[in-house]
Amino acid sequence: MSTWAERVHRRAADFSSVVTSCGHPGSSAPTYPYRLEKVKFGVSLDEVCKNDNIPGPLLVLILKLNKESPNRRDVFRAPGHQGAMKKLIHFLQAGRLVNVDNYSVYTIASVLKKFLRKIPNGIFGRSGENELFAIIELSNEAEQNERLHKLFTSLPKYTQHLLVLLFGTFRVIASNADHAGTGMTSEALGVSVAPSFFQSCVSDGKTARMEDVLKFKVATKIMKYIIDKFATHDLFGRDNYEYYARVTGRILKVQDEWICSFQYPPPPRGKLAQQKYALQHSLEAEKTWLQCQCERWGLRP
């Protein structure tokens, strides 16, 4: 492989180019000396998330859903293309370069659901699922939120990060459901994704038992509750909300406090460029202030 091709693969290993780089086309059976992180299906999360970090390719898939799904109908409910799903899963497990622009949000959502469904004992773990089933039956909302916060923050850091990205994405989709006419309310999302999060409500046999049906209804209720309370109550802890804001670039409001954890690039050189830079960000600051005031006084911007 030429020096140029080696440089291409080396640059592709960096997260910033994970969706744009391509392999060396000169061989019918190409080798991949600089592979990306592998996203393994059917193994525990600690094997997937090395050094407490979510693999770059998996992170890119979630970010694409976070950006594009809020205005698309039936994401997480409509199935993805089966052939494209198999191809994407193969690339993820092999550590191959993935151009996410080649895959629809429906295919990516279906692959993500399958990844979650394949985690041994589920993303919450058996004890975590039992705790969630107990929490949802409580009559005191404050106690519910406190126990949810305690449960989520007791999980490994990579699990916390994955959960806050997923539920943050669900919240963005649900909050835009009426305005964009997507049909994906928090209840619809709960029905669509609950089996991927709660393995205890999925029957081992071919025929669903009544017990499984009842558990599924409760699991759907749990998912809806967490989605609805994502930003109104401190369920995940400030560090995780800041992680979500930093990774997605979104601004969110948690318990009447705005969280905005991303940095602007350094100012450009040159007088005219600096003036343009200052004008741009002063307008953005004014827009954010107006949004805060509209939220404060119950007005829609």
Query: What's the number of structural domains?
Result: 2
Estimate the strand proportion.
under 5%
Under the CATH scheme, the architecture of the largest domain is Orthogonal Bundle
| Most strands sheet | 2 strands, antiparallel
Query: What is the string of helix and strand elements?
Result: HHHHHHHHHHHHEEH
Q: With helices defined by DSSP (H or I, 4 residues minimum), what is the helix count?
A: 13
CATH topology of the largest domain: Phosphatidylinositol 3-kinase, Chain A
Query: What is the distance, rounded to the nearest whole angstrom, between the alpha carbons of the first and last residues?
Result: 55 Å
GO molecular function: GTPase activator activity
InterPro entries: Rho_GTPase_activation_prot, RhoGAP_dom
Pfam family, one: RhoGAP
Protein name: Rho-GAP domain-containing protein
Sequence-ordered SSE layout with sheet pairings:
Elements: H1 3-12, H2 45-48, H3 56-68, H4 82-94, H5 105-117, H6 125-135, H7 141-154, H8 157-175, H9 177-180, H10 186-197, H11 210-228, H12 238-248, E1 252-254, E2 257-259, H13 271-296
Textual characterization of the structure:
The chain is an all-alpha fold and about 300 residues long. It folds into two domains: about 35-255, Rho GTPase activation protein (Phosphatidylinositol 3-kinase, Chain A, Orthogonal Bundle), CATH 1.10.555.10; about 270-300. The chain has 13 helices and two strands, in the order ααααααααααααββα. It has helices at about 5-10, 45-50, 55-70, 80-95, 105-115, 125-135, 140-155, 155-175, 175-180, 185-195, 210-230, 240-250, 270-295, and strands spanning about 250-255, 255-260. Helix 3 (about 55-70) packs parallel to helix 8, helix 5 (about 105-115) packs across helix 10 and helix 8 crosses helix 12 (about 240-250). The longest helix is centred in the C-terminal third of the chain and has 26 residues, at about 270-295. It is globular.
